Each structure stands twice: as C-alpha cells, then as structure tokens.
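note to self: the first set is below, dont mix up w the second
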Amino acid sequence: MDGTTFDDLIKRLVSKRLTRSDALRGLVASGAALAGVTLIAESGAARGKRKICHCTNETAASCKTINIGKKAARKHLRRHDCDYGRECDGPSGCCHVNTQACTSDAQCCSGFCGDGTCRPADCANVTESCATLSCCSGNCQGGTCFACKSATTPCIQNSECCSLTCSGGTCA
C-alpha cells in the first residue's frame, strides 16, 4: 500500500461516524478472523500426529484408525500386536498368513480357513486343477488338488497330509 492510499483510508475511517452496529460488525469480523487463525494453527499441530490402525482382535471389524503423537504411536505399536502404523485398510495386523493354523475364517488375512490352515481366498477345490491356483486343501499332486489329511490321521506319504509331513504312518 502506498502513502496516498493509506492517507485516503485513514481519512475515510476518521470522517465516518461509527455506530453501535458498525462496531458490533467489526467485532464479529475480528472474532471470525481470530477463529480462522486458531483453526489453522490447530490443523498444523495435527502434523505431529501419526495415524495408527488399532485392532482389538484379528477381525477387520475390530479395527479403528486413531491419531496419536509420534512418541505415543511407537509405544502403542510395541504394546498392541494387532495394530499397524497407518490408516486401517483391511485385515488387522495380527491375522494369520497362509499356511498358519486357524480355527475360523476371521483369523486368516485371506479370510479363508480350510482344514485348520489359512489358505488363499482364490484357491482351487479338490479335483480341480492346481496349475494356476494353489489348492484350498494345500495338497497339489500332478496338477490336481486332492483332499489332505489333518494331524493324527494315518498316512503313507507326506503329500497326503495338510502339513505335508507324514511321520511314523501319521500326519503331523
């Protein structure tokens, strides 16, 4: 702003009579401007926070994204096995990967528990080809999926068992 513009502005402000409504309007405008500055400062403070996916169990439904400070985030992730350091985006951090033991579909990251083992969600069923997909049973022989035997079931060879281990005539 140059000197002439500033002088004109001052003359207009001084020469105009200030009413109560003008004063009130000015106070409201000032309050709004201050609130805007405060809101900007608060959103800037959020930059020091981290998003964490907090899960109470292995199911995705138990997960909720929370924002906490950087230091608290590190401590939180060490204490909670199912949590991970980003926005929630699917299964919890403690779901079982394929080939780990399971008792329900909810425990598996793939969402599929077959024969007590987490399996890929898009797997081939018994008697289907396992040329492009892995077998849901985990037992692919000669390009065809076969049913596998669970632990303590009698067996002759490793490929019969879901664990792929036949020891002493019994699946491990």
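second set (the one i keep forgetting abt)
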Amino acid sequence: MDTPDMSGTAPGLKKTLGTFQLWGIAVGLVISGEYFGWSYGWASAGTLGFAVTVVFVALMYTCFIYSSQYWFGLALDPLTGRHVSTRGSTYLEANWSQEVAPGLTLTLHVGRQHLRRLGMFDFTDVKIGVTKQWKTWSLGLAAMHNDGARGRQQVPLWTFLDANGRGRRVSGSAVVHSATQAF
C-alpha cells in the first residue's frame, strides 16, 4: 500500500514509455552490447579515441547504405559491356540449425537468386553442414552446391580472381572444412 506524500496523494510511477519505445531500447541495448562492445571499446580507446572510431564507423555504414542503392540496382552485362538495371532482383533463402547431440549442430541452407535482366547469373545454392564444439574449438564440415552457369560465350561467370590473378570458380560442388578457436 502506498503512503500519501505531503500533498495527500499516493505517489506512483507514471507510464511514459509505450511498448514500441521499450522494444526500441531493448533492441538498441542488445545491438550495442553484442555487436559494438561499447564498454570494451570505451575502456580500450578512451573517450576521444572511442568517439573518433564511432564517427568513422557511422560514416562508413552511411556510405555503405547509400552506395547499395546504386550498387544493387545496376550491373555490368559481361557479354555486351553495358550497364543494366537490375532493380527487382531477388534472393530468397531458408536456413535451419538444430543441435542433434551435445555440442553437435546440423545446419541446412537453400537459397535462390534471380537477377532481373541478367538471368545468366540466376542460381540455386544448397548446403548441409555439421559443427562440433569441443572445449574452445569449433570444428566444421559442410557439403555445398551452386548451380550457377560456369560461363557463356567464352565469358566466365561465377569466377572470382585470387590475389595472384588466377580465377577461382565458385559454381559447382565443394566440401569445406573449418577449425576455429575462441580466445
């Protein structure tokens, strides 16, 4: 039971934040704590160093957002050399992960890309993988397949150049293994 204050009314809290505002605060706290590490960054770099870093990262993020409007809506046709509008392109995916035994996770993925006006770049990709957590190590094994066209009219598609200039084909099937350690 609330005790009346000097004015004779019972003190109480007024509801000033609604559901949307509370949700926004919670999301902001999670993002800032999980992805940016405010406390660690501030402690490591100091106030000025951290402020400079935050401004720099915000500038890069802003540039990325505005560049994506251009980048994801325009592509170069490798056969004609002309710029082609690809607005309306889609990539849909479905992912599923399940721990099947203690420390052992099964992951499934399927995705489909449709590149408007450049159908030669359409593809479907699938992946099945397992990851084993062991102490501080994460060991993974995955089988993947991408049905993207390897090339058309002597022009390689889905080929990326390594630093030494050799092409690496990314369509087709592959088995990938990984080992990472958390410190």
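remember for set 2: The mean pLDDT is 77.
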